[in-house]
Amino acid sequence: RVSVEVNLFIPQVIQYPDPKDEDQSQFSLPHAVAAAVLEERVSPESFGDKSINDPLFKAMRAKVDTVVREEWGWATIGWTPTITVSLKNGERLVARPERASGQPPDYFSFDQVTGKYRTCVEPKLEKGRIDRSIEMVRKLEECGDIGEIVREVAR
To answer: pTM of the full predicted structure?
Structure first.
């Protein structure tokens, strides 16, 4: 089982334990945990119909418990989630991520951002267009018309 301790605010936003569509899956803590556990890399496709209806995802979502810690209040900042994985042998693994990757002051590097970008657009754009758009952003200060970048990814 996986237990995720959160404050009072999170269940108001992340409110779909068993999502029925893509919109709900993006606001489902159990689905996000399932994606993190079952997939090598979480991507927008992790929240698509294929994953939503996958029996492995359904089984994993059922093993995720959201524990609301009322004493942590309603603030969107100033608290740290506690994630506990209980293994079949009784061992418990506990993590308390102090901040999300890329969060100030430890910003992502350009290469880390482009890696995430590629993950998001690979299903939609051909490799050449992705590479060209990244290079255009890399040289943004030299770009005479920002519309060039938009046209590269929108055509």
So the answer is: 0.82
The strand pair at 82-86 and 92-95 is best described as antiparallel
Whole-number Cα distances in Å, 98 to 4, 55, 75, 86, 103? 14, 32, 15, 21, 10
3-state secondary structure of 26: coil
Pairing outcome for strands 82-86 and 2-6? antiparallel
Residue with tokens 């569509």, as numbered in its chain: 21
Tokens at 55, concatenated: 């029996």
Each residue's pLDDT tens digit, 90-102: 999 999 998 888 8
Sequential DSSP letters for 70-106: GGG-S-SSS---EEEEE-TTS-EEEE--SS-TT-TTS
**Which residues are within 8 A (CB) of 94 and not within 5 positions of it... i.e. 6 or more apart?**
82, 83, 84, 85
Residue identified by tokens 């350009």 is 110
pLDDT tens digits, residue range 52-61?
999 999 999 9
Query: Cα-flanking dihedrals φ and ψ of residue 22, to 5°?
Result: -60, -40
Q: Which two tokens stand for residue 18?
A: 């068993």
3-class state of residue 69 by DSSP? coil
CA distance 8 to 132: 44
